[in-house]
Design goal:
It is globular and about 45 Å long. The chain folds into 2 domains: about 80 residues, no CATH class; about 100 residues, no CATH class. The N and C termini lie close together (about 10 Å). By secondary structure, it is mostly helical. It is about 75% helix and about 0% strand.
Amino acid sequence: MSDYGYPVALSWLSRCHDSLTSGHQPAGGRRFNDDLCWPTAAEFGSVVLEYAVRINDPHALDQAIDLLRRACHDGPQTGQARIANSYLLGMALCIRFDRCGRFADLNSAVRELQLAREVFGDAAERSDLARAGRALSLLGRAIHRRFRIAGQSVDLDEAAEAFRAAAELTGRRMTGAETARNTRRNARTTSRQTGRRYLHR
């Protein structure tokens, strides 16, 4: 399923991945994304991420993260583009954490999504509340995963606040009881989660 809500053929993703990674190999040992502008890096990163999840390819996942980091670094630091790029990078890092168990990836995902949250105010008032809400929900899940590992109570509080903000942003206020139920539900989530859960929420 693409970020736009419709299925993408695996054969098409495979062709795109092969074309991208073989067609951008400059001489001198540089990475294939070194010459890409940020919108292209973001678009390519999104395609390679979905391909990596569909075929469970850790190398392609690393490539997607490199591309999405490039998009976040070179792209706008405010507005909808920043929210979209940070959401995709945060999602990719969460997927790699689930699959490889690198705690640094979970921390990086939290930091990236926190940066995106800082620009929600102005951007979310204009458009695309659904994406901003998904990013906040992903932030809540990532912080809660970190709480379950590190046991820092501040993470539990921040996760609950992220879930509440996500619900409010998408037009539905969450009661205290609902927030507690969501937090308990997320506590039952295990490290066996797959990347597909992140892609399709």
